[in-house]
Write a structure and sequence with these properties.
Layout lengths: L23 E2 L12 E6 L2 E8 L4 H12 L5 E4 L3 H8 L9 H6 L3 H21 L5 H13 L3 E3 L4 H11 L5 H13 L6 H5 L6 H5 L1 H4 L3 H22 L7 E7 H12 L6 H7 L8 H24 L1 H25 L4 H14 L7 H12 L4 H5 L1 H4 L3 H6 L1 H34 L1
Parallel strand pairs: 3-6, 4-5, 4-6
Antiparallel strand pairs: 1-2, 2-3
């Protein structure tokens, strides 16, 4: 059965288009039947046929091939960004990154999250025998074979993750992180029927399935914004009249929302709004000044301690040093860091905690990279290694990321614990 003009039962969060929307057309009868939902819209002289797919599905990949083999299309748009397209074309792309630069630019968390998302997809692929993004790979290959323009219309995954992080209240971020890790570490088998049900949702949403449906703060950047973004990119890269018939390959969870945006009048200059959806919300002023405020309070505490009693002053300094050093250094032990890394972190953490311009995690990761430089095989096996819990410690690349994250977390906890100890000692001595 052809599923043209049908949608999955997922709410898109968008209002029903008004009477000003362009007329809809059924998918041409000449198009082959597809297992996934199909929708064709005519805007001006251009038709856009949107195919809803599952990101791990042999049937979805076959749908793409059959549609493009029909010869009905002169352009192909897919739900990929430049980074994911590059990763698909070059699986060893991670090996081309300068890890030290990743840590220096503060991208370690985003890289770790991307690896975790990839691990979740790979886990499903290992159980199904289908590589992640099989339908996107089919679209890329067929577009190349047929010499059709290939349009990448999704937002960069790193920007999406950043907007999710900024949009979710700080007290929910730990639960979000836990949900991501839980999805990665779960070893429950996924049946073929369950995999096919992913046609009703988004792969990122499936990863955060415990939270996406319940949290508007998470759902907006994860699903709704990307629906709008892809419609804007289509309007920008394939405006009416540029092509006659565009095949748009997107996850079925985005089909309804993207269609509604295409049906509604889009801005004359879609680039302006598209760039606004790429901007990362700036942290509040409180988060900018908080590290400096903590530093000022700790140094003031030392000064007050020494002014009261030299012994008390040295006691506060010693407790600050030991608590910070032990917690940060101990955290790197959990990551199975090199002994030199553990020692370096122990001595660095108390000092970096008083200098907001550099973190203990950066120092720990730098030393770990120096002592255990990742080898070629670490990069080549990274995607597979991180699908298992022990693989994060086995692979030198992912282990260095763990060293960075855990050292940063340990130092942050140490700062608060030691800070309260100092406050307690001073007020107790008053």
């Amino acid at each position: 059965m052809n599923h043209e003009d049908t949608f999955p039962e997922e709410a898109s969060g968008n209002d029903t288009p008004d009477t000003q929307t362009p007329p809809l057309e059924a998918a041409p009868a000449s198009l082959p039947a597809t297992s996934g939902p199909l929708k064709t819209i005519a805007i001006g002289d251009t038709r856009y046929t949107l195919l809803g797919t599952a990101h791990v599905s042999a049937e979805s990949a076959d749908d793409v091939r059959k549609l493009l083999d029909s010869g009905a299309f002169d352009a192909v748009a897919i739900e990929l960004c430049d980074a994911r397209h590059h990763s698909m074309s070059n699986p060893d792309a991670m090996g081309e990154q300068d890890l030290f630069q990743v840590f220096k630019e503060g991208k370690a968390g985003m890289v770790a999250a991307s690896l975790a998302l990839g691990a979740f997809q790979q886990r499903i692929a290992d159980q199904s025998g289908i590589q992640p993004g099989a339908e996107m790979r089919a679209a890329v290959e067929e577009a190349s074979r047929l010499q059709l323009p290939l349009l990448l219309v999704d937002r960069d995954v790193g920007l999406t993750l950043k907007r999710i992080y900024r949009n979710v209240p700080w007290w929910q971020r730990f639960s979000l992180f836990s949900g991501l890790i839980g999805s990665v570490l779960s070893r429950q088998d996924v049946s073929k029927e369950d995999i096919e049900k992913l046609k009703e949702g988004d792969m990122l949403e499936a990863t955060f399935n415990e939270f996406a449906a319940e949290s508007e703060a998470l759902y907006a950047p994860l699903i709704r914004e990307r629906d709008r973004y892809m419609a804007l990119r289509l309007a920008e890269d394939a405006p009416p009249g540029r092509y006659q018939h565009v095949l748009v390959v997107i996850g079925a969870g985005h089909l309804k929302g993207t269609v509604e945006h295409l049906e509604a009048p889009l801005p004359a200059d879609p680039k302006v709004e598209r760039e606004s959806l790429e901007a990362t919300p700036a942290p509040t002023k409180l988060w900018k000044i908080l590290p400096w405020l903590i530093t000022a309070l700790v140094l003031t505490g030392f000064a007050v301690g020494f002014s009261r009693n030299t012994g008390l002053g040295w006691q506060l300094v010693l407790e600050w040093f030991l608590i910070n050093g032990i917690l940060a250094g101990g955290a790197t032990i959990i990551a199975l860091a090199h002994p030199v890394t553990v020692i370096a972190t122990f001595f660095a953490a108390p000092l970096t905690s008083l200098n907001p311009t550099i973190g203990a995690g950066f120092v720990a990761a730098g030393v770990e990279l120096y002592m255990r430089k990742p080898k070629v095989r670490d990069f080549s096996t990274l995607r597979h290694d991180v699908t298992q819990l022990k693989g994060w410690w086995k692979n030198r690349v992912s282990r260095t990321l763990l060293v960075f994250i855990l050292a940063t977390l340990g130092s942050a906890i140490g700062t608060w614990v030691a800070g309260f100890r100092i406050a307690g000692a001073l007020f107790g001595s008053a």
